[in-house]
Structures are given as C-alpha cells and as structure tokens.
Design brief:
Elements lengths: L1 H18 L9 E2 L5 H10 L5 H4 L13 E4 L3 E5 L5 E4 L1 H11 L6 H4 L1 E2 L7 E2 L5 E9 L1 H13 L6 H16 L2 E7 L4 E10 L1 E7 L2 H4 L3 H4 L11 E7 L2 E2 L8 E2 L8 E6 L10 H32 L1 H30 L2 H17 L2 H7 L2 H27 L5 H9 L3 H14 L2 H18 L7 H10 L3 H10 L6 H5 L4 H5 L2 H7 L3 H6 L3 H25 L13 E6 L3 E4 L2 E3 L5 H7 L11 H9 L7 E3 L2 E4 L3 E4 L11 E3 L5 E8 L17 E5 H11 L3 H6 L2 E2 L2
Parallel strand pairs: 13-24
Antiparallel strand pairs: 1-15, 2-3, 2-7, 3-4, 4-11, 5-10, 6-10, 7-9, 8-9, 10-11, 11-12, 14-15, 14-21, 16-17, 18-19, 20-23, 21-22, 22-23
C-alpha cells in the first residue's frame, strides 16, 4: 500500500523539485547531490565554480572535494600542499597534543613545531579518510533485505550493512561505509581511501590556539588562531596529494560568497515536538546542571596545579565543550520556540495525512501515538539521566575500573588500574566521587540501589565526603603497591570503588515498569515520523537534505555580522587588538606568552597583512559567515567563490546552539579563523619557513 502510494506521487514530486528554489542558506547538502537548482542558488550568491569542479567522482584529483578529508569522523581537514600537508583545528588535535605531552614537554602550553621533517611526530591510532565516490544503493539494500527474509535469515540493519559493505569493499579494494538517510528511506555507500600514518607537524600553544578557553567557547567576538597541521605518510614517505587547496591572500568582505565542505557529525532536524519536549524538560536540565558543577570542581584543581591541568586538560576540554553546547541548546530551545515550530510542522503533516486514505491508514494516529509514547517514558528517562551523569560518567577513574573489571586476564586488569592511577589525581577524583554520590543517592529512589550501595548509605548517610574517602582509601587505586600486590581477578571485582560504580546496573532502569520496551516503541515511532516527514516534503516538492551523519556535506553562505539581541550588532571580524584587550596574566585562558605578546604589540604583519579597520596594514583573527555547520565540521576549510582557502571553521555562536534540531535564519553563524593569521603565526611566531614554502598562495 505504501509503495503504491509513493510510486504514483514520486514522478510529480520530482518534476516540482527540478524547478523548486532552495530557501535561505540552510542545509548541509550531500556533496554528490549538487543538482541544478542548488547550483543555481549557489551561483546567485556568488559561486564561480561549476558543480563538477566541487565534486566529480569520475575524474580523480580534479575537484575541490578531493582535497577534503575526515579525521576519524570526529573532525574535518584539508590538504594544503602536494606532500600530504593537512590543516585542521587545534581543538581537533588537542587530544593528540595532550597524549604526547609530559610535565617536561607540555606541548599544549609550549606548542609543537617540527622544524625538520624527521621531527614530525607520529600519532598512533589516527586514520585519515579521502572520499572517492558515493553510490546510491537504496535498491540493492531493498533487494538484499527481501532475499534474506525469503531465506529465513537475519535481515536486520546491522547484518545488511555488514554484507553491503563487505560486497563493495571486495569490488573496490577500499574502505566502504554505508549510511542510512531519512530514517532508512535512502541508502548510500561511501568509498574511501584510508591512510593510517599521520604525523603532527605544527600546533600552537593554547594561548594562541585556544585563547579564551571554555569561557569564550561559543562566544563572539573570538580571538583563536585555531589550527594544527599534520602530514600524511604512506610507506614511510609523505603522500603525493592528488589535489590540494590554494591559499588565498585576497581576503573577503561582507556579502562575499563562502562554502564549507566537511564531515558534520549528527543533526536531528527531523525531530518531533515530543523529542524536543523530552530534551528541554528531562535530559538537558539534568546533564547541564551536573556537568556544570563537575567543571567547577576540575577547574578549581587545574588552576592550583599545572600537573593536574595536564592530566585533566583533555577530559575537561571535552566536558566543557559538551556542557556549554547543551546549556546553550536548552536556552535556544526556549528563546526560538523550537517545540512550537515542530508542532506547526506536525499540524501540517496531520493535515497532509488526513487528505489521503492510504496515508491515513498508515499514519493516521502516528503523531498522537508518538506523544503518548514519550510521556510514558519520561520518568524512566529522568532516572537514567541521573544514573548516567553521576554514577556512570561522574568521575574520570570509573572508566579505568570498568576496563579492569572487563579484562580477560590479571595483567590486563592491573595495567588498566596502573594507567588510571597515572592519569588521575586522588584529590580531584575524591571530590568528584563525593559529588557523584550525592547526586546519585539524593535524586534516585532505593529501588536502584544495590546491596553494597545501601550499606554505604546506612553507614555514612549524607556525609558523602566521608563515603568517598572510605571508598578511595580502601580501593586498589589508592597506591601502585596495592595494584602490584593483586594476585587474582576476584580482588579487582571486589574492589569497593568498583562495586560502587557497578552495583546499580543499567538493566534496573530498563526493566522497571517495562521502560526499555516503552522506549523502544517511542524510538520506532520517532523513526516512522521522520519517514513520514521526508515523504511529505518530497510530495510537496520541497528540496530537502538528510540529517548529518558524518558523511561529506557542503554548505554555502556569505561573510557578515549579525544582531544577536535587540540593539546589539556584532561585527563580522575580530583583530589582534581584541587579544591584547582580553589579556590577563592572572587567568590561564587569557594569558599570553612573552613572545606572542611582544609580536602582537609590535603589529608587524609583514606580507600577511592587508588594509582593515582603518589601518593601512592590519590583520583579521577570526571572522563570521552564515554557513550551516555542526560538530564534526571543526577543521573544515572555508572556501571563497573560486574554491580557494580563506579560513578554518571552528565554532558556532551561542544563538546557533539549537541548530542540531532547528535552523534559525539570521542567528546561526559560523566562526572561522582567518588563514592569513595562521600563516602569520607560522611565519613570525614559529619560524616555520619550510612549511610556508610548500603552500601555494594566490593573490589577485
């Protein structure tokens, strides 16, 4: 019934789509689907390239997309030389920089500069993905699913994915990853060339690459030179790049065309109002409150001791990024009335459903059923949120105990505990542990408490500091000698700290009042809602893009400022003057090293400078565009109308933090580092002349 209905509408919809305009600059468009309507809209905004110059799977090395990479599908990057030189964001390399740092060589604070090629530092475990082609495999997936079902075999999505990826890997000899779009209405196979030898070349200190720290995160104006450089090797030699980007020294101006190509991670713009309501009332308030207080604890200890800062910098960076994003998301949901927007969409959908008997038979009660399902899971999800934020991820040391408890042999378990002892600080962990225990015992009822946890509560009551002290002092993690003395895995399993973390398993939350089954039903209805929304937009002839899912996307926009609030105008660029204005030697995130401060005060911009802000030769640090981005786009190249590199996307603004579920025109801004400021840092601050010689610069 469903197939028959859509067969009779799809031809009419396709005809409408061909002439339909793209509205606004919203959209993370699939790189392989730049159709005539989208290309026309981009050219109206200033694009000087044709679609095949942006992406062309049939002509390797000829398109801009051939120079764009994914860094393990957590960040994006681009090649800027023919010898595998890759540029991305400093915050994308943050974890790797922390990993190779020691108290004696803290590259986060000092910066890392490979002055010769043999100093380039290999980063184990990293992978770089080059997209070679994207294939629509929707028909093949449907045929394979039916074939498996006819044989009585497992036809679940994981099995189908694995079989399809294996098939294409054999055919191409490359890494193949299949992605579902629009809740399974379309399937695409991405074929990648993968490199596994990635070496760090350049990374500025945090006073340059992460100036302003978490306080400035999501804020504007920003003053980060947020870049890092790697080189890709193969067989011990730098790869010869098929395509690299040219770096433009011409600059840009308000209204200038920009495009961003990269690998945005996850969006949920097809979400229902019930999902928004759940996030706004249940999940976000709990996680934001707890994570905010955890950050206060860690920050206080980091400010006291440089060694603690080094140990916790990577975890704190990740924690603050998520917490601040989610806090902004909660605020933007309210400010921009996202739930009401989704409800208007649902009213339109219900009218569309009611207009056709076939649709009404399929989806007539979908929207009310969905809202009912979410309401039935609210209490259980609230309890799981407190469990997750306090017990499961409330301390850093818990992950090491989980690894030790799951180890197959004694030495692996002891190694996990030794690593935990090395990577953490007892004072920090005890305070985090006391806070986690307070949140857990205060906000959940005794149904979820295990026998050991009940004994702790009986013994210590609400004296959570004493409880944490007891757990730590009696744990194997209290000293390396205790870890060395362990003779069997049972001692690890019976460790009091491990028992505290594991005494309340997630199964308790899933089983109570049939919560898992209810949540599964809600998830299935949400998925069906997204399918219905896709077909409604298709039938009505609206151009649409699927939610981001770590596949290559392109977004276009223009340079410009914005009005965040009534009477407040934000200019489209920031300058080094702002760095000096924010400078505070007493606050780590706003401190400058002596060399950086002297160079900024001197203002010798050399060949990288240009007229700006009334100066004959000035410098832009960061600039704003209205490109539509999300997490995973970090490190993406910002390109001008000719496809030349002008900057690196690294953040969004506070007003954009509902954008994973709702795009708000005029408020969603993309914050970018100016590529000329990057080159100035490489030249004047770091003296990386050898790197500058590799890069191809263009200037009119």
């Amino acid at each position: 019934m469903r197939i028959n209905y859509f067969l009779k509408t799809v031809v009419a919809a396709a005809t409408i789509l061909a002439a339909s305009p793209v509205h606004a600059d919203e959209g993370m468009w699939m790189i392989q689907d730049i159709n005539e309507a989208l290309e026309k809209k981009m050219k109206e905004r200033g694009l000087l390239l044709d679609a095949r110059e942006i992406y062309d799977a049939d002509a390797p090395g000829t398109s801009v997309a051939d120079a764009i990479v994914s860094l393990g599908f957590y960040c994006s990057g681009s090649l800027i030389s023919d010898r595998g030189l890759l540029i991305t964001n400093h915050h994308c390399a943050y974890s790797n920089i922390a990993k190779i740092s020691t108290p004696g060589h803290n590259y986060l604070e000092e910066g890392f500069w490979a002055m010769t090629e043999d100093q380039e530092r290999q980063i184990p475990g990293e992978q770089v993905y080059f997209l070679k082609k994207v294939i629509d495999v929707t028909g093949e997936v449907a045929a394979l699913t039916e074939e498996l079902k006819s044989k009585g075999e497992n036809a679940g999505s994981r099995r189908v994915n694995a079989l399809m990826e294996e098939r294409y890997k054999k055919e191409t000899g490359m890494e193949c990853i299949m992605s579902s779009m629009w809740a399974g209405e379309k399937y695409y196979m991405a074929v990648y060339k993968v490199y596994t030898d990635l070496r760090l070349v350049a990374a500025p200190p945090v006073c340059i690459g992460y100036f302003g720290g978490d306080e400035d995160n999501w804020e504007w104006p920003r003053h980060n030179c947020d870049f890092a450089m790697y080189r890709i090797y193969e067989d011990g030699k730098p790869v010869t790049s098929e395509r690299s980007l040219k770096v433009s020294l011409d600059g840009y101006w308000p209204g200038a065309f920009t495009m961003v190509i990269g690998y945005p991670g996850r969006t949920d713009r097809y979400a229902s109002s019930a999902e928004i309501d759940y996030q706004q009332k249940v999940n976000l308030p709990i996680s934001n409150d707890i994570r905010g207080k955890q950050m206060e604890i860690i920050r206080r200890w980091m400010d006291k001791d440089p060694e603690i800062r080094l140990k916790y910098s990577d975890w704190f960076f990740s924690l603050s990024n998520v917490q601040e994003n989610n806090s902004g998301m909660e605020a933007c949901y309210k400010r921009f009335h996202v739930k009401a927007e989704k409800e208007r969409q649902e009213a339109e959908m219900q009218e569309w459903i009611d207009s056709d008997p076939d649709l009404k038979r399929m989806w007539g009660s979908l929207i009310p059923d969905l809202k009912k399902a979410y309401s039935q899971t609210a209490r259980g999800e609230r309890d799981k949120a407190y469990f997750r934020e306090s017990l499961f991820r409330g301390t850093f040391i818990s992950r090491y105990f989980l690894r030790a408890g799951n180890a197959r042999d004694l030495e692996a378990a002891k190694a996990a505990l030794r690593q935990g002892l090395k990577d953490t600080d007892p004072a920090v962990e005890r305070e985090l542990l006391a806070y986690s225990a307070m949140e857990f015992f205060t906000n959940l009822d005794s149904y979820y408490f295990g026998n050991f946890q009940k004994k702790l509560l009986s013994r210590f009551g609400t004296d959570f500091e004493a409880m944490a002290g007891y757990l730590w002092d009696n744990s194997l993690i209290a000293s390396e000698d205790r870890i060395d003395a362990v003779t069997d895995l049972e001692q690890v399993q019976e460790d009091p700290l491990r028992k505290f973390f594991t005494d309340s398993p997630v199964s308790l939350y899933n089983e109570r009042n049939g919560h898992l089954a209810a949540r599964t039903k809600a998830n299935n209805l949400e998925r069906e809602y997204k399918k219905a929304l896709y077909w409604m937009k298709l039938q009505k002839g609206r151009l649409q893009y699927p939610d981001a899912n770590s596949t290559m996307r392109i977004t276009y926009g223009t340079v410009g400022g914005y009005w965040p609030n009534d009477g407040v105008w934000c200019n489209w660029y920031s300058t080094p003057r702002g760095i000096l204005q924010k400078y505070n030697p007493d606050v780590h995130d706003f401190n400058l090293d002596d060399r950086q401060k002297a160079l900024l005060e001197k203002g010798d911009w050399g060949k990288w400078g240009f007229p700006v802000g009334g100066q004959s030769k000035g410098m832009i640090v960061d600039f704003l565009t209205d490109n539509d981005i999300t997490g995973g786009n970090s490190g993406s190249p910002v390109l001008n109308a000719k496809g030349e590199l002008i900057g690196l996307a690294f953040d969004g603004n506070l007003e954009s933090l509902a954008s994973d579920t709702s795009y708000t025109p005029g408020y969603n801004m993309c914050i970018n580092t100016d590529i000329r400021f990057v080159m100035w840092v490489l030249d004047k601050y770091a003296g990386m002349k050898r790197i500058l010689k590799e890069i191809k610069f263009v200037k009119s």
